[in-house]
Amino acid sequence: MNVSFLFSLPRTLAEYEGARRLLADAGALSLGEHGAKGGVAVPRLFCGCDPEDKSLGSGGGTVHLLHACYVDEQRHAPAPAKKSFLSWLRLADTDGRVIVHAGGLSRRLPAYAAVGKALLPLPPCRWHRGSQLSRTLLSTQVPMYREMVATAPAHLRTLIACGDVCVDARGALPSLAPFAESDVLCFGIRADAHVLPSHGVLFTARERPLDLDYMLQKPSLAEVRRRVAGGRHSFLLDVGMWMLSDRAVEVLARKCLGGALDAEDATGGGRDGHRCTAVRTAYDLYSEFGSALGSHAPSADPEIAGLKASVVELRDAEFLHYGTNRQLISAAAALQRREAAAPSWWWGAPFDGVLAPER
């Protein structure tokens, strides 16, 4: 499986020559030849950022990042290999794409505003051989991203994830084979009630637990209780990881680009994605696109209504959000508790160093 990684980063990091090396190290990506300015070429990795002075929303930011990557590839492609943006969006069965939104201004976590939360350092696992001092939030998530893309049905090859979230899954990931007909997969977990008003909530009918009935963005606890009171619905916390089919990606792109998506040459003259964008309309992936998904979506949109949306429950998993200083501390402590059960000194060899290699 050839998986491409697209990162939306803070502008300072996206324009830094060594950004690709930092991301490659965190994601265990293979390095290419050194560039002229000391940087490295990392195959199938693209770094971008939102344009200056324009808010795009998470949906618009996704399309902007895809388009910026497309423009960059077309700039270096030979003439026979050039293609339209719409054709480029459609992936081959052996290709995959992971989009990580790790930009933002980090007003509530200013210490990591420059590098972005994806490169936020995490404590090494206690009592584990081979744990690295260089561990980051991104390095804990990349193996799961790869497994999801590799095991998904052939038409589900685009994964969108939030760079400020750690989903700590202890057990095996659920099989994605039952979702061969789905266009959108939303991953969710069972979570404490106090977390729900700050995130998206996925509702499913009990007789169809795999099909999304509707999604609400940041509902109150009273609203959640009211909707499940009759016993007909259950709910999961949306962890911010979605898998989209080529058809769903095309619908999202059309929402942001309009008729420009059908242009044979959609490179925009090779415009610099750091300073301008082809996206015409700000569009939110979760509150606008998501609210129109499902059998009983609260928002009516004929194009999105034609997409089949499903829900995948991640069992034995915990949702850790690194949004504020308080959440940074509590999430790091929770991750340590889950990873680091105290060893039995009487029955096993003592811990012999953080950087000791695994045997």
UniProtKB/TrEMBL annotation:
One of its GO terms (molecular function) is nucleotide binding. GO terms for biological process: GDP-L-fucose salvage. This is Fucose kinase. Keywords: Kinase, Nucleotide-binding, Transferase. Residues 99-256 form the GDP-fucose pyrophosphorylase domain. Pfam families: Fucose_pyrophosphorylase. The keyword Cell membrane does not apply.
